[in-house]
Amino acid sequence: MNPERPAKPGPTTKPHRKNLFASRMAKTPKSFIREILKVTDDPRIISFAGGLPNPDLIDAAGIADAAGRVLAAEGRKALQYSTTEGYLPLRTWIAERYRKRLGMAVSPCEILITNGSQQCLDLIGKVFLNAGDPIAIERPGYLGAIQAFSLYEPVFCPITLQDDGPDPAMLAEVLERHNPKFFYGIPNSQNPTGITYTGERRKEIADVMQKTGTFFIEDDAYGELNFTGRSPQSFRQLLPATTLITGSFSKILAPGMRLGWVVAPVEVMEQLVIAKQASDLHSNFLSQRIAYEYLSHTDIDSHIHRIQQAYRHQCDLMQAEIKKTFPASVRYTRPEGGMFLWLTLPDGISANEVFDAAIKEEVAVLPGTPFYIDGGGNSTLRINFSNAPDTMICEGIARLVRVIRKLGK
Ligand SMILES: Cc1ncc(COP(=O)(O)O)c(C=O)c1O
Questions:
Q1: What are phi and psi of 364, to 5 degrees?
Q2: What would be the CATH architecture of the domain defined by 60-296?
Q3: Are strands 134-139 and 182-185 parallel, antiparallel or unpaired?
Q4: What tens digit of pLDDT does each residue of 184-205 get?
Q5: Which of 186, 191, 259, 280 best tests ligand 1's pocket when mutated (most atoms within 8 Å of CB)?
Q6: What is the distance in A from the centroid of ligand 1 to the CA of 26?
Q7: Which residues pair with 343 in a beta bridge?
Q8: Architecture of the domain spanning 24-59+302-408
Q9: Which residue intervals of the chain bear CATH 3.40.640.10?
Q10: 117 CA to middle of ligand 1, Å?
Q11: Which of 58, 117, 259, 382 to mutate to test the pocket of ligand 1 (most atoms within 8 A of CB)?
Q12: What pLDDT shows up at residue 15?
């Protein structure tokens, strides 16, 4: 038996009670990605559908050493309950990293350690949203955020993501008409498109938001993965009182450690801490201790540089193969970081058709439709480049081009 494969479901016991589940559950989209990943479980399929980091870049030996040291020196403490806010030395490390990377002052009191940055989205939904509250989100937007916020039944106001960042005129209109509680965006290497907002566009967005009470939720899961080594300005530097940042160790250490954080002004932090305490008391303390031990004994800049270089190579290779083989009518983004490319197919080719035909050719891609909160995106695809070796990238793109050419006829 493979312990990683889901067990077969037991017999269904139909609940006798009507309306057993809260109505919010019906309004929350299933994770389309998880559904798709079931299809791609077949080892013959080359999958560009998921979003996993490259496993060769997870320093398992280094993390094992750090774990050994923590357990040997302070095992009982590290296995105890701890504070909701998180391990202070780890929060101090994160604050220091902001100072070093961005020249941005953050106090450890403004940092809450979470169970991956995904939990930040749930906590933000919990503390900010009443049912029916308007919120703004990029179009296309991160599916995990759409799912997390949907549980709190907001009204989503989509803001078109252009090549330079969100459309400022559209945002201005939404702010004026709906006064959303927050605008959630991913300024660095956006998921799903790979787009990084330009400096100019960041200023325009900040200008538009400046006069409003709307918060900017800056999801910075990919901030450290800029291949050029650039660290663009955070919105916290532009809108200090009304920006929350969510950060993650998933892409630079290991996603299985489930460690992320949120940076928030103190009065928001108080609310987040209460919500977190009610959810899970605190994040995995052993994981926090191991992460801190690892970070304080590793040349983390070199480690991150290796990740950036590897992803740059994988991204360049995928783009080169696309350029060489795809019809010129297929458009694609040129990310400067992250893990994804975004393809727009010529009119008349549907991404869902591509998905079905591609599975038959044993390559998986992700149709863009679930990233559009209000429908649309029928001709778009998200392609992950971080989790396939070079030969698979070349072979997978060759299979995909066969599908696109066939459907384009
Ligand atoms: C934009 C974005 N935010 C948040 C997350 C959640 O990541 P984690 O919970 O592992 O930090 C992801 C995961 O890929 C993501 O792409």
A1: -115, 135
A2: 3-Layer(aba) Sandwich (3.40)
A3: parallel
A4: 999 999 999 999 999 999 999 9
A5: 191
A6: 23
A7: 332, 381
A8: Alpha-Beta Complex (3.90)
A9: 60-296
A10: 6
A11: 117
A12: 65
Above pLDDT 70, what percent of the chain?
Answer: 94
Beta-carbon contacts of 320 under 8 Å, excluding residues fewer than 6 positions away, are none
Of 29-33, 51-55, 165-169, 354-358, the range with the lowest mean pLDDT is 29-33
Rounded distance from Cα 143 to ligand 1 centre (Å): 10
Find the residues whose C-beta lies inside 6 A of ligand 1: 51, 116-118, 142, 144, 186, 191, 219, 221, 248, 250, 255, 260
Q: How far apart are CA 262 and CA 219, in angstroms?
A: 9
User: Cα(384)–Cα(387) distance, rounded to whole angstroms?
Assistant: 7
Question: Per-residue pLDDT averaged across 13-29, rounded?
Answer: 79
* For residues 139-148, average pLDDT: 96
| Average pLDDT value for residue range 401-405 | 93
> Residue 321 pLDDT more than 70?
yes
Distance (angstroms) between ligand 1 centre and the Cα of 402 equals 32
The alpha carbon of 302 and the centre of ligand 1 are apart by a number of angstroms equal to 23
Domain with CATH 3.90.1150.10 in the chain: 24-59+302-408
- Are the C-beta atoms of 368 and 382 separated by less than 8 Å? yes
Measured by CA distance, the residue closest to atom 16 of ligand 1 is 191
Query: For the segment 211-228, what is each residue's pLDDT rounded down to a tens digit?
Result: 899 999 999 999 999 999
Q: How far apart are CA 130 and CA 153, in angstroms?
A: 7
Please give the model's pTM, rounded to 2 decimal places.
Answer: 0.95
DSSP, collapsed to helix, strand or coil, labels residue 81 as coil
Ligand 1 atom closest to the CA of 222, numbered from 1: 1
